[in-house]
What we know:
The chain is an alpha+beta fold. The chain folds into 3 domains: 3-85, Rossmann fold (3-Layer(aba) Sandwich), CATH 3.40.50.20; 92-175 and 307-322, Dna Ligase, domain 1 (2-Layer Sandwich); 179-289, D-amino Acid Aminotransferase, Chain A, domain 1 (2-Layer Sandwich). It contains 10 helices and 15 strands. The strands form 4 sheets. Strands 13-10-9-14-15 form a 5-stranded antiparallel beta sheet. A hairpin with a 2-residue loop joins strand 9 (179-186) and strand 10 (189-197). The chain is globular and about 65 Å long. Mean pLDDT is 82; it is low at 291-342.
Amino acid sequence: xxxxxxxxxxxxxxxxxxxxxxxxxxxxxxxxxxxxxxxxxxxxxxxxxxxxxxxxxxxxxxxxxxxxxxxxxxxxxxxxxxxxxxxxxxxxxxxxxxxxxxxxxxxxxxxxxxxxxxxxxxxxxxxxxxxxxxxxxxxxxxxxxxxxxxxxxxxxxxxxxxxxxxxxxxxxxxxxxxxxxxxxxxxxxxxxxxxxxxxxxxxxxxxxxxxxxxxxxxxxxxxxxxxxxxxxxxxxxxxxxxxxxxxxxxxxxxxxxxxxxxxxxxxxxxxxxxxxxxxxxxxxxxxxxxxxxxxxxxxxxxxxxxxxxxxxxxxxxxxxxxxxxxxxxxxxxxxxxxxxxx
Length: 342
C-alpha cells in the first residue's frame, strides 16, 4: 500500500469539474489499496513522507507547484509533474527547441528578439511564413497571449505588448483547423485521446469573446478510431519532453500533422476519460510502480536554460535555424524568467 498526495490549491478546488475528477482519482487509488490525501501549499512539509505526489494545480517555475515538485524529487518521491517537465513546458521557446531537436513535426516557427523588430522585419516574417501569423508570448498558458495577426501594423502592436513581458516571442505559421487532437501521453504510452472542437468565434481552444470566456467542446475518441499517425506523433512529442504525463495538441491540415503545444499538466476533468476508464488507474500504477529516476540523465536532454542552448542548439548555431535574422555568436539571450538550473 502506498501513500499518495494530490497537490492542489484553491483555484483547483474552485472548479467543480476538477474536484469531481480528483475525488474519482482518490477513490480509484483507495480501491487499489492505497491511501490518498489532498496536499495544500501550507502542507508542503508533508511531501517527504509520501510515496508519490500527483500535482493538480497550475504549474510554473515561479510558484509553489514547482517547489513541491523539486521537494519530491529531492526526497526521491515519484512526482507528476516532474521539475524538468515543468521547466520545459512553462517556456514555449524551450519546449519548441526540444521538439525541433527530436525532429517532431510542428508549424514553421521563428523566435524573434525584441531589438530585431521593425516594419521591414515584420514584412519579412509574413513573406517567409505566410498570412496570417500566430504570435505567442513564451510563458503563456490556456491560450492567453496567443494572437493571430493579419498585417504589419497588427504584428507590431501585438509584439510590442508581448515584449513588455519577455525579451523574445514565438512567431509561427498559421495552421487552420476546426479541432485539435489532444493526445494524453504517460511515460511514452497513450493515456487518452480526444478532439477539442474549436469555438466558431475564435481560433483557440479558449478565448475571451465580447467579455465572455468561450471554451472548446471535448469529444473523447476511442483509441481504435484515432489515426495511428496522430497517436505516434503524440508519443514522439511527449518523449521529446520527458517521461511524465503530457497533453499534446495536434492539428491536421492538408494531410499533414503538426504539434501545436505540449502541456505538462493536462486537463483530466473535461471528459477525456470517457473511452478510457482505466486512465486514473494507469496514472496511479505509474506513480507507485514506475521509474523514479529523472529522465534527463544525459546533459543533452536537460531543460535548456534561456541564457544559452548547448551543442548544436547554442546561440550562433541555433540562430541560423530559428531566427529570421542571424544573431552574433555569444549574443546575450534572456527571458523575463531564468529557467536554468545552477
